[in-house]
């Protein structure tokens, strides 16, 4: 089955989901910038999630792990502007209070509400603004885009989409632009489906999709303490429960993969200050794990990212990363292809046209393909170029 991402889709594309957002004054850069958002289902959903491996994780992750012990949830509340991270016992209490506010508003159990916060680390949530914001949100099945916009921080645009397979839909959105080198998922990602997915299968397919998508994107080599990916399955499209070996199992996994890869690419494309997407593929590795390792090393090389920004066909920077990596290589078998042009093979440069390669690199996406020549391991991942604007954005982020 060929599954294509619908670029206009949102978290409310599946039936039975509604969303809403308001500006509560948490973000400091002007009214009209939504910063408190709710996502809710018409019934209790099967739920799964993955979280950051940053050991100093944010307060909302503490709350969500506790609320997901039964594998169920019905709503998500998100604020942008303050991360509620490194805020101790008060931060955890504020996270539980956010869940309770939504539970009271929607007549749900607080334990069926998940919480996410994104923004500046080390600041306490302005709970009076959170409370007012939650109270003011109005839910609608047409407000998926408002939800995607409200979760943004330094993002320049919302990131969203949906896929269909058979009678079912998966919708999603995410935020992320800087502090992107996840060892779990992305900064924040929210996925919804009207398919009746069994919980253990939902968790396995989410974890697998995250490994192939959000875990393969890097902007700057930093991992947020707030990284969270959540999927809610309400089953309202009907049918038999989906689990391993059932009719729609492989299609669900394929659709979830496709949507997560689309969202991951959009994060890299919208990296802080970025002008180009880096699309990196490694094959011929000793294992998939080694291929993934090299992809991440390539997407985080400041020298290579700078060359991509300048449209400089300096393939030596790619070979240097391969050489310094600990992955297994067969030196005579290593080859490098840059924007479709083979630039290195048989231990030396090819007779490529540097002007043609430089011209190709001036587009909004630069592809890099490396063959290590030792095995069948392969992986793909995404990054972005390094520009002056990245420094400017992060020099002024807190002040």
3D architecture notes:
This protein folds into 2 domains: 17-269, L-amino peptidase D-ALA esterase/amidase; 277-395, ArgJ beta chain, C-terminal domain (Ubiquitin-like (UB roll), Roll), CATH 3.10.20. The protein has helices at 59-67, 88-106, 127-136, 144-150, 199-212, 249-269, 288-299, 302-309, 316-324, 354-361, 388-395; strands at 17-22, 36-51, 72-82, 113-120, 159-165, 168-175, 188-193, 228-233, 277-285, 335-338, 341-345, 348-349, 365-371, 377-384. Helix content is 31%, strand content 26%. It starts with 16 loop residues before the first strand and ends with a helix. The strands form 2 sheets. Strands 1, 2, 3, 4, 5, 6, 7 and 8 form an 8-stranded mixed β-sheet that branches. The protein has 399 residues and is an alpha+beta fold. The mean pLDDT is 93. The protein contains 11 helices and 14 strands. It is globular.
| Integer count of domains | 2
* Helix/strand/pairing category: alpha+beta
The major beta sheet can be summarized as: 8 strands, mixed
What is the annotated CATH architecture of the largest domain?
Answer: 4-Layer Sandwich
In short:
The protein has 2 domains: 17-269, L-amino peptidase D-ALA esterase/amidase; 277-395, ArgJ beta chain, C-terminal domain (Ubiquitin-like (UB roll), Roll), CATH 3.10.20.340. The protein has 11 helices and 14 strands. Strands 1, 2, 3, 4, 5, 6, 7 and 8 form an 8-stranded mixed sheet that branches. It has a 6-stranded mixed sheet with strand order 12-11-10-13-9-14.
């Amino acid at each position: 089955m060929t599954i294509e991402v619908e670029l206009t889709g949102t978290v409310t594309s599946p039936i039975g989901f509604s969303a809403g957002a308001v500006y509560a004054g948490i973000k400091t850069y002007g009214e009209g910038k939504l910063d408190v958002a709710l996502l809710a289902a018409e019934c209790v959903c099967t739920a799964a999630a993955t979280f950051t491996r940053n050991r100093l994780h944010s307060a909302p992750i503490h709350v969500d792990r506790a609320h997901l012990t039964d594998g169920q949830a019905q709503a998500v509340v998100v604020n942008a502007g303050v991360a509620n991270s490194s805020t101790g016992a008060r931060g955890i209490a504020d996270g539980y209070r956010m869940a309770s506010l939504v539970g009271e508003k929607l007549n749900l159990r607080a334990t069926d509400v998940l919480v996410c916060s994104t923004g500046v680390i080390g600041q306490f949530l302005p709970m009076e603004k959170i409370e007012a914001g939650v109270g003011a949100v109005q839910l609608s099945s047409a407000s998926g885009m408002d939800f995607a916009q409200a979760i943004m921080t330094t993002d320049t645009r919302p990131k969203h989409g949906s896929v269909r397979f058979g009678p079912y839909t998966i919708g999603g959105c995410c935020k992320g632009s800087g502090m992107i080198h996840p060892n779990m998922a992305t900064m924040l990602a929210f996925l919804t489906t009207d398919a009746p997915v069994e919980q253990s299968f939902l968790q396995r397919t989410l974890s697998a999709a995250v490994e192939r998508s959000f875990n393969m994107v890097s902007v700057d080599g930093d991992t947020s303490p707030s990284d969270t990916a959540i999927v809610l399955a309400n089953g309202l499209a009907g049918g038999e429960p989906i689990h391993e070996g059932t009719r729609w199992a492989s299609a669900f996994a394929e659709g979830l993969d496709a949507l997560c890869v689309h969202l991951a690419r959009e994060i890299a494309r919208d990296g802080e200050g970025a002008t180009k997407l880096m699309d990196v593929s490694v094959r011929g590795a000793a294992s998939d794990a080694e291929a993934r390792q090299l992809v991440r090393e390539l997407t985080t090389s400041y020298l290579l990212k700078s060359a991509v920004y300048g449209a400089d066909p300096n393939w030596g920077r790619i070979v240097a990363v391969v050489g310094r990596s600990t992955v297994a290589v067969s030196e005579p078998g290593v080859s490098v292809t840059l924007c479709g042009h083979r630039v290195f093979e048989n231990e030396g440069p090819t007779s490529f046209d540097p002007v043609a390669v430089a011209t190709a690199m001036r587009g909004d996406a630069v592809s890099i393909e490396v063959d290590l020549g030792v095995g069948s391991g392969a992986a793909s991942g995404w990054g972005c170029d390094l520009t002056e604007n990245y420094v400017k954005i992060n020099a002024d982020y807190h002040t």
